Amino acid sequence: MAIDDTLSASRVLRACFPDSDPLLLSDSEFKESIRAVYTNNWQVDLGFTFFVSKYHFDDETFVEGRSLITEGVVSVKASVKMKNFISARETLGRVLHTLQDFYSHSNWIEMKNKVPFSALIQPNIRLENLADKGTPTCRDCVGGNCTDNILPEILSAKKITSGYFSLFFSSKPEGKFLTNTTSCIQPRKCSHGGSFDRTSLKTPMGGINKDDLSSSHGHLHQDAALVATNATVELLDDIRLAVGDVNFLRFMGISSSSVLCFVIDTTGSMSDDIEEAKRVSFSIIDSRRGTPEEPSAYILVPFNDPDFGPLTRTTNADEFKLRISALTPDGGGDEPEMCLSGLQIFVFTDASAKDEYLKGTVLALIEKTHSV
User: Fold this and answer.
1) What SS3 state is found at 185?
2) For 5-33, what is each residue's pLDDT tens digit?
3) Contact 37/26 with Cβ under 8 angstroms?
4) Distances (CA, A) of 225 to 73, 109, 212, 337, 340
5) Angle at 365 between CA 258 and CA 295, to 5 degrees
6) Pairing mode of beta strands 312-314, 183-187
7) What tens digit of pLDDT does each residue of 172-201 get?
8) Model-level pTM?
9) Does 164 lie in the same domain as 230?
10) Which of 32, 134, 207, 349 can bridge 216 by disulfide, Cβ–Cβ 3.0-4.6 Å?
11) Do 237 and 307 fall within a single domain?
12) Can you state the angle between helices 62-81 and 85-105, rounded to 10 degrees?
């Protein structure tokens, strides 16, 4: 599937479950997952993290930035395996911000690289050929044109650098360089650039960021965005391989089925039938595990006389089975039970029903069961 402007949550969902009835596919949870990742991504540019270089690979903080990514990925994988998908999505959003900033804040794209820097997600690979604090990396932009401000020797040697950034101070590390007659020391480090960056006002002036088309190196924005997108896919695939396809799809909020709900009678009259009810319930649960029909959540509502509940909701099939196993018949005494109280369902929507042809069937069931 091509990653372009035509890509949508519903298209991805249909591609994941091509054999499923489209009427049973809902992209609402997938969209909510996307929103959670997106929100936590841009929030890195808010609060204290905005000022911390390693969250953006500013100031040549490559080792520190890589550590943020790899440690975050470890946390995401652990959370997914524990079914803590909300926490995993929040962490993923923050990790992706740092990863994507590498391609717009460093000179990776200026060095003509067309593929991601895979070492950023692999902690066992040594980061090499990094420009140190004393290595000159940039020269002044000419008349506001910054397309050629990275030193040619940095690009030819494939030295990785990034821009310095500060809202308050203009100072940058000093670099030693040679002239025809002497050795000089003065600031020769690249700046991030932009109207908020004070360091870009000091020699070498200008910047190298590619955050948008109007940035100092905005002519490379599309290239940086493409490689950052591929790096994002690479990281997601690394997580998928670690947690498995089923867990990964649930982490992403991708599911072809609705919630599986059991309403089970626990009155004394069920003493001869409760074990069979459990057996059938377990069979239904196990038959769907690891398949496209695996529920996104499980709900158990026991009912008795005169009470019903408590309701149990979980995304863990084994926990759900334990709750069912714990049910014991007790109470009651008269034949009518509180069954319909356990079946109360409220539907809220802002759209008309796509399956309105089922309205007659639903009304007939309501009449037959005296549900109203």
Assistant:
1) strand
2) 788 888 887 787 777 666 667 778 889 99
3) no
4) 21, 10, 9, 61, 54
5) 10
6) unpaired
7) 887 665 555 555 555 589 999 998 999 999
8) 0.75
9) yes
10) 207
11) no
12) 160
